[in-house]
Structure to design on (422 residues):
């Protein structure tokens, strides 16, 4: 397996660092628009693991916005798999580039949505992933696999959902992804500051778009942003967090493969974060449409959202200033295998102190990066296989969760996951 890793930001950097402890691949080509970032990732691996491990990593430059460039770099390195680790706005160009190069493809977020032109808060328009799923027949016909949405959410959450359907329940009422944390970021003086732990570009996209809900009798429909608040009690000391509806891929993916009466996604944002997002929207700073701005060198065209992203701390750099844990999981209700009512929460918790000590990566990006590496290993060993455009829930969950939880001394990843009866 020769993996073209597109993007050496926070998540891409963590993917390479996690993979450095594994032996299932021949080479990982770490690429970025700024090749210095790719080289920095490999230098960290060399310092941590030595020259023998670092020799399996190669740095190169790439422009992820151009499918022909992605295809060219993939062919140059004889890549068998293209791992997309950049902003969702580049999904379609990398997806097309991998297809053209004859490589398999993985991503952690899917092609962007476009709200319904007249009824955005009741009807769907172009949904997350629609453009990729539309190409499924072509990928299957050519024997290529696009494993989409294999981050943490979507990704690990989808694996948990598949496990619940296959092994825990005879009938599922709701698959409800619930994400919460008690993370805090501080400045040099010890004051807590506003610094999102994940890409603000992506966060704006998913939080301000109309959230999607799926119900068996209605199909997909939308609601108002931040709707249906509920308090969910997260495990391992995180505690109660208010969660709200947010647009997310799980709702667009799970119903394609898993039987359930309802599928939802709710995210614990907090009042301050919601307030900031609403302000950005009111000021049109969430827009991705370039506007003309005067500068010292003359007028330039720039998207307001890109300005916001540039003004905030890079999520890859805030780990040393961050404390707390983040939790990703799926709350499942229905009837157990014995026919009696059952309600469980399947989850994984990532502790920033541990991820920083072990990988020099903050916990949110590290938890996201863990899952594509596990998936790549399953594909390399043949435990998972397929063709077409498939989500993680299209595969048996047990090999994934077994490999994830097994101790590193026994060939696993040493990441225990939880199952809490509600």
């Amino acid at each position: 397996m020769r993996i073209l890793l597109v993007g050496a930001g926070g998540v891409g950097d963590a993917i390479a660092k996690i993979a450095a402890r594994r032996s299932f691949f021949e080479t990982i080509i770490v690429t970025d628009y700024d090749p210095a970032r790719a080289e920095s990732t490999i230098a960290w691996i060399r310092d941590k693991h030595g020259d023998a491990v670092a020799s399996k990593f190669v740095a190169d430059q790439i422009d992820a916005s151009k499918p022909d460039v992605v295809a060219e770099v993939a062919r140059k390195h004889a890549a068998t798999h293209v791992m997309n680790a950049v902003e969702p706005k580049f999904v379609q160009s990398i997806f097309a580039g991998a297809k053209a190069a004859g490589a398999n493809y993985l991503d952690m977020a899917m092609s962007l949505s476009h709200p319904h032109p007249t009824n955005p808060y009741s009807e769907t328009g172009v949904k997350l992933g629609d453009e990729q799923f539309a190409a499924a027949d072509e990928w299957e016909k050519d024997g290529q696999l696009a494993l989409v949405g294999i981050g943490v959410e979507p990704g690990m959450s989808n694996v948990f959902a598949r496990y619940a359907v296959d092994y825990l329940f005879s009938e599922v009422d709701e698959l409800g992804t619930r994400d919460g944390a008690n993370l805090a970021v501080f400045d040099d003086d010890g004051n807590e500051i506003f610094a999102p732990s994940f890409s603000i570009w992506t966060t704006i996209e998913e939080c301000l778009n109309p959230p999607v809900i799926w119900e068996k009798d209605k199909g997909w429909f939308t609601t108002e942003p931040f709707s249906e608040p509920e308090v969910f009690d997260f495990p391992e000391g995180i505690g109660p967090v208010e969660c709200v509806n947010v647009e997310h891929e799980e709702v667009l993916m799970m119903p394609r493969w898993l039987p359930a009466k309802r599928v939802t996604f709710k995210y614990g944002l907090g009042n301050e974060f919601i307030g900031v997002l609403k302000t950005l929207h009111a000021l049109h700073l969430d827009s991705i449409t370039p506007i003309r701005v005067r500068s010292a060198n003359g007028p330039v065209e720039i998207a307001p959202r890109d300005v916001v992203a540039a003004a905030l701390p890079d999520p890859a750099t805030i780990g040393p200033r961050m404390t707390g844990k983040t939790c990703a999981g799926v709350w499942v209700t229905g009837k157990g295998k014995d026919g009696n009512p059952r309600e469980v929460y399947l989850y994984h918790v990532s502790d920033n102190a541990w991820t920083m000590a072990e990988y020099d990566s903050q916990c949110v990006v590290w938890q996201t990066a863990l899952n594509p590496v596990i998936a790549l290993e399953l594909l390399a060993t043949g435990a998972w296989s397929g063709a077409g455009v498939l989500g993680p829930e299209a595969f048996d969950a047990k090999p994934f969760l077994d490999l994830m939880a097994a101790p590193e001394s026994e060939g696993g990843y040493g990441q225990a996951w939880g199952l809490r009866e509600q």
In short: The two ends are 41 Å apart (CA to CA). The chain has two domains: 2-151+365-417, 156-363.
